[in-house]
């Protein structure tokens, strides 16, 4: 007999768990999140939010909160011996390509110590319960659900929760994947580092003053390398060094840290105040799970893959895993979709895990000056925006067209609008205000149609009533105050003004009809996608 029944239990209150809880809440499902630690992350770890992530966060009502918490604006990366020089290389704004043709969302720059509390607050506002200092001790799944044993860490008290589904957002070191017998592959441990935060009034005229991130190549540092971050451009720094045979975590006493910081800054008598010392080594790994689903258990975030931070994808992908999984879980839990919809999670999400792992590994190896192997992406996709907006979802939750070549990526600068691709951004005007077509999407399934698309309203109403789902219809260029000044939406989406495109809640095109002849097929398309 369990003490509590919940639709979804999420293990881990990191970016992936909190994102899953937030988007489940947005779709009307109140999740229970349990987290072993007493708080969210105190470490800033992932700083940048890519615009496709900001679009998802905008849907959750979080864009403004993220931008207010952003400390990163421009990025200057330097490589050199110390802040005092010599400097070998400077990269300005390398991480911030102009994507304004693809999105209206800005880049975010909130560290994880700020973004996790924002997500946690929003998840709670949307109905989630978050229990800190609580861990999953064991779980067992059967045909109807998952029984999970929890332990309240301060009291040691155990309780049992019965959940329809379990989401393993328990990070790379979480135990759920292992208990399911899911193995993995990849290069494994690349190196380990220890880090500290410190405050110092570094002279403003040093050659590397003003850097956001500095990679140090200095034989006086352990292993010859170090990383110095100053994202806030204040007197607060994050400094990490590698552990090697000669330097272990216990060798890094306060005195030794002060010595190393002065070497990194290049000012021998610099007054320095240590404000936080990492308790355990950060492991930089390249590893991908062999599967990301087992029955009623779904893996998200670092439980799926762990990539070197160089590519900047770990945290961003963790947020998006939650975004892509939540609507599917919600529709199944709410009885609006059959369980087969959940079969699409792995085929849609797994190829992307492999892609970003190869990308992150390549970025790491390049920074190290090492040869790339077959498992590292030899060249960045051209354009690199494919990694944000160009990856496709190929599964039974997409009604693929006969001539679809199954390509896993496409160039978002030349969108096809075909099913399985992200709905393209088109600038529109709604009630006099500029909006992106993406802002019409996300709360439910959406049908976009054009000036001659009157027949779709009745077809959509009938489909929604028959299936008991919400299906919003937006007629672009009709009489509803939504216009397309550049007259590009229909060609961009690959339909005519009488055609329509059905978009899933995750902004992906599920099905389209080039003209109004497809009105009779709409319900069937939804049935196929929703496993009804
Ligand atoms: C130094 C560093 C820099 C980084 N920089 C970037 C960057 O610039 N950009 C980027 O995108 N990414 C970056 N990353 C990666 C990013 O931080 C991770 O990908 C992200 O935090 C993963 O989130 P997660 O929620 O999947 O896992 P985690 O943050 O690891 O969260 C998992 C949580 O599950 C909890 N847990 C585990 N087991 C249990 C259990 N049995 N019961 C209860 N709770 C449990 C853990 O306590 C933990 O809080 C960086 C990482 C590091 C370490």
TrEMBL record:
Keywords: FAD, Flavoprotein. Residues 402-424 are annotated as: Disordered. Residues 6-356 form the FAD-binding domain. Coiled coil: none annotated. One of its GO terms (molecular function) is oxidoreductase activity, acting on paired donors, with incorporation or reduction of molecular oxygen, NAD(P)H as one donor, and incorporation of one atom of oxygen. Its cofactor is FAD. PANTHER family: BINDING MONOOXYGENASE, PUTATIVE (JCVI)-RELATED, TRK SYSTEM POTASSIUM UPTAKE PROTEIN. This is FAD-binding domain-containing protein. It comes from Spongiactinospora rosea. The lineage of its organism: Bacteria, Bacillati, Actinomycetota, Actinomycetes, Streptosporangiales.
């Amino acid at each position: 007999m369990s003490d509590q029944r919940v639709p979804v239990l999420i293990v881990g209150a990191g970016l992936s768990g909190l994102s899953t809880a937030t988007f489940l809440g947005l779709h009307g499902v109140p999740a229970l999140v349990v987290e072993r630690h007493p708080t969210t992350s105190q470490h800033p770890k992932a700083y940048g939010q890519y615009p496709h992530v900001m679009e998802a966060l905008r849907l959750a009502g979080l864009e403004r909160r993220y931008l207010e918490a952003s400390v990163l604006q421009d990025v200057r990366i330097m490589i050199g011996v110390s802040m005092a020089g010599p400097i070998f290389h400077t990269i300005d704004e390398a991480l911030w390509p102009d994507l304004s043709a693809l999105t209206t969302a800005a880049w975010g720059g909130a560290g994880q110590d700020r973004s996790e509390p924002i997500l946690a607050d929003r998840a709670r506002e949307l109905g989630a319960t978050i229990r800190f200092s609580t861990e999953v001790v064991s779980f067992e799944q059967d045909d109807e659900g998952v029984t999970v044993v929890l332990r309240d860490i301060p009291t040691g008290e155990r309780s049992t929760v019965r959940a329809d589904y379990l989401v393993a957002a328990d990070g790379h070191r979480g135990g759920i994947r292992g208990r399911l017998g899911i193995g993995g592959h990849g290069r494994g441990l690349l190196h380990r580092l220890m880090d500290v935060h410190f405050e110092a009034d570094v002279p403003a005229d040093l050659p590397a003053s003003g850097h956001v991130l500095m990679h140090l190549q200095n034989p006086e540092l352990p292993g010859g390398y170090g990383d110095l971050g100053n994202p806030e451009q204040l007197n607060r720094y994050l400094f990490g060094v590698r552990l090697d045979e000669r330097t272990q975590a216990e060798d890094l006493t306060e005195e030794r840290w002060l010595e190393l910081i002065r070497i990194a800054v290049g000012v021998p008598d610099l007054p320095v105040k240590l404000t936080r010392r990492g308790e355990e080594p950060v492991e930089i790994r390249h590893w991908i799970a062999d599967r990301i689903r087992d029955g009623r258990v779904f893996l998200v975030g670092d439980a799926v893959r762990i990539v070197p931070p160089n590519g900047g994808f770990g945290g961003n992908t963790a947020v998006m895993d939650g975004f892509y999984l939540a609507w599917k879980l919600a529709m199944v839990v709410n009885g609006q979709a059959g369980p087969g919809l959940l079969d699409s999670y792995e085929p849609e999400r797994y190829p992307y895990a492999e892609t970003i792992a190869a990308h992150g590994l390549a970025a790491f190896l390049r920074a190290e000056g090492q040869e790339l192997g077959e498992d590292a992406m030899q060249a960045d996709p051209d354009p690199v925006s494919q990694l944000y907006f160009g990856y496709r979802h190929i599964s039974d939750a997409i009604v693929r067209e006969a001539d679809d070549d199954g390509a896993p990526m496409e160039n978002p600068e030349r969108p096809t609008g075909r099913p399985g691709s992200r709905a393209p951004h088109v600038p529109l005007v709604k009630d006099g205000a500029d909006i992106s077509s993406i802002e019409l999407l996300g709360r439910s399934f959406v049908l976009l149609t054009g000036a001659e698309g009157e027949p779709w309203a009745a077809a959509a109403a009938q489909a929604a009533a028959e299936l008991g789902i919400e299906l919003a219809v937006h007629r672009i260029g009709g009489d509803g105050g939504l216009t397309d000044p550049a007259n590009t939406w229909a060609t961009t989406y690959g339909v005519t003004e009488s055609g329509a495109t059905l978009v899933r809640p995750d902004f992906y095109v599920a099905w389209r009809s080039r003209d109004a002849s497809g009105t009779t097929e709409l319900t069937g398309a939804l049935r196929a996608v929703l496993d009804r």
